């Protein structure tokens, strides 16, 4: 029973349900590679890779940041600093998820297996970037942004440079909302020598950086439509994404961060799902 309680606490700690952020973009990459819906077994193993990689990354982040979380009032109640989980248990969970991820990549093709250590290095080492660069947000963006490229490789066994445009779009999307999220800790980060855009240039400047990143994302999505000769349905999807991003930026401001969690979690989950639905419909209806 103690083990089950610890596992339940771990799943709550890593917010496994938030795998929804990057998963639709991974499935978009898979559908672009397959020119339609991939084989169900491929979809299953791609989902397994996404969930295990993200679980390993989130657990490792909590393990690596435990001491930092303990001195931040916003994060002091997280599982490790609060004493609900030991660092040893979280470390073991990270290793277990990483092993499952590698085993899942082996079910796809040889290239996905060979590249799996590189993927793990990217998603795990992000946790240390805030210690030496204000642009850690871009590293987090890359950690999620590799999902569509990885899914393409999972389907094709090769890399097409066109899919890197979707990776770049996801990178700037994630980095943009992570800049907003980091505004909550700007003063704390400055006091403790941690790096972020809000800590470096202030919250108003960080909002402009976030807006610029999301504008770049939209341009990249339009370029993606051109590269893959997608049609009007995909363009409607991008318009919906643009509208939701605008709403996200309207409900928070440098002087009022109270609705930041709604912007960060709810709206971004909807954005990724909507984009996938419209692009998937475009691909399937044009076959």
Describe this structure in words.
The protein has 287 residues and is mainly alpha-helical. The protein has one domain: Orthogonal Bundle (Tetracycline Repressor, domain 2), CATH 1.10.357. Helix content is 74%, strand content 0%. The protein contains 13 helices and no strands. The longest helix has 26 residues. The radius of gyration is 19 Å and the shape is globular. The termini are far apart. The model has no long low-confidence stretch (mean pLDDT 89).
Main traits of this protein?
single chain; 287 residues; Tetracycline Repressor, domain 2; 74% helix; globular
Fold topology:
Elements: H1 2-14, H2 23-34, H3 40-64, H4 66-70, H5 87-106, H6 110-125, H7 136-156, H8 163-182, H9 186-191, H10 197-201, H11 203-227, H12 232-250, H13 260-285
Helix pairs in contact: 1-3, 2-3, 2-7, 2-13, 3-5, 3-6, 5-6, 6-7, 7-8, 8-11, 8-13, 11-12, 12-13
